[in-house]
Amino acid sequence: MRNLKSQLAVWLALLGLCSLMPGAMARLTLPTGIDGSTGSSPNQISTVQVCRLDGTPVVSVQAQMNGFFEVILPPGTYVLTPYYMARPFPGQPIPEYVLRGASKEVTVTQNHLTSVNLSAASFPLAP
């Protein structure tokens, strides 16, 4: 009988613990922002400029060597513009030009990472 009471106590404790979990899970939040790729190659340095629709800059983020990037942002609509520069080899001068890729409008929703693929460079900008 004592063994049955012990098992019942354990099951009731587990049941009570499980009933707390949905509330705890509801408090967890997922990241909100953008993840994506600049389409750049390892021999390029790529940076993504994030602006509001009115053109106000929010943040610039440098992509990893494989072109992938992630930026945490509040919900809203943003314009992303990638910039590319050749990665100089040791002993080489830094390139005197930057290439700008096509801008893309992206809408960010709460608790969601919006994925975006940005195109490769389209034309050079003045130094």
Please provide a brief summary of the model.
The chain is an alpha+beta fold and 127 residues long.
Which key features would you list for this structure?
disordered C terminus; alpha+beta; 127 residues; Immunoglobulin-like; 20% helix; 6-stranded antiparallel beta sheet
Number of helices: 1
**Mind telling me the C-alpha Rg?**
24 Å
CATH topological fold name: Immunoglobulin-like
For the largest beta-sheet, the strand count, sense and barrel status come to: 6 strands, antiparallel
* pLDDT averaged residue by residue: 81
- Counted up, domains total 1
What order do the SSEs take from the amino end to the carboxyl end, as H and E?
HEEEEEEEEE
Q: Would you mind describing this structure in some detail?
A:
With 127 residues, the chain is α+β, with helices and mostly antiparallel strands. It has a single domain, classed as Immunoglobulin-like (Sandwich). It is 20% helix and 43% strand. It is built from 1 helix and 9 strands, in the order αβββββββββ. The strands form 2 sheets. Strands 2, 3, 5, 6, 7 and 9 form a 6-stranded antiparallel beta sheet that branches. It has a 3-stranded mixed beta sheet with strand order 4-1-8, with no helix packed on it. A hairpin with a 4-residue loop joins strand 2 (44-52) and strand 3 (57-62). It is elongated and about 80 Å long. Mean pLDDT is 81; it is low at 122-127.
